Amino acid sequence: MSSTLQDLVNRAVFYSTEVQTHFGALIADAEWEVDFSSDPHLTFTSADGAVLRTRPHLLGSESDREKTWLWGWENVNDFPDAVVGLSHDVRKFGAAEEVTELTTAELSLDEELALRLTLAAKEATGKWAHYPAAAGAGTTVWLLVDAAEIALPAPQVKVSVRALMQGLTQTTVSDHRAAIESYVAKRGIPTADLPEGGLRMLFADGSADLSFDDQRRISNCDLNEPLEGEAAEQFAAAESTGTPTEAATASRTPDSVSAPAADETAAPSTTTPSPPTPAPEEEPSRTEALPVDESAAEATQAAEALADDAAAPAAEAADASPELKRPEDEQPRADEPVEPAEAKTPAEEEPAKEAKPKKKGLFSKLFGR
């Protein structure tokens, strides 16, 4: 059975969004450095000196200059297999599923292509965190990342609803219902059918009732806290039948990486950043999501408002990534040397201060937007 790129995006988008939000909170104030040797590692160092050492996989690169995406498996830089091996797995998956975008070495770039290819690669490999690393000269290297610290905690109703709302602002999701069904399966979230084709997501701390229109798009979302009434009975029934929430979560987290990567994560030199301070608990509430046919700007604002406590730590991070640190003879593309970013003069900076453009923080950058 073949798939399309859009099918893969639908299956991956919501789970990826939750993982990226969690990952972003871990590295919000951190500087990073990558090593593409035979022992590849991507290291994040926070302002207080905490270090998170991760295992990167070079997926591909996008060039603003050439307006193209180049898959890592093309390997024009002769990186070790430890760096690009996973991208070969993506190509093989694409060949089996007849997804031409995963088997064509170079593709014409559009605004969302790099993110959509990364989502497809996540669905193909089960690696759910990614990091877009600026390499200079208008090139961004997209990495899939392994680290035990990225594993998600037990599902929570507000966190999951945020993932749905935020995910819809990241890229085109053609079938919301199918995307949610894929998400709850990956996350191990019990569900119950509702009248008129609705779906209830069940959590230990609440429930979310979703309605869909005739095009299978989310038309309404009622979030309920705490878990009570019929929803509580449905959750208890699901738990009694052994709904494998923890097992499903574990199977989709970096704990299942290969032994070398796991050993690397546990190296003595690695320390884990302290998690962000939990937001104060809010009063039980019932909220209604905006309909999906609103304008893109309004949808983005609604999702950001819903996810404000998750996004806040990441939004305070630096606006741009530091340059990719690597030996001078290792370039992102064989014909494109890495060039340092031009320093802005005070005269150039002053108009920017007056205009006060909206900053693109780490939270947005992590999602590739």
From TrEMBL:
It comes from the Bacteria. Residues 234-369 are annotated as: Disordered. Residues 322-355 have a biased composition (Basic and acidic residues). Residues 258-272, 287-320 have a biased composition (Low complexity). Residues 240-256 have a biased composition (Polar residues). Transmembrane segments: none annotated. Residues 356-369 have a biased composition (Basic residues). This is Uncharacterized protein. It comes from Brevibacterium linens.
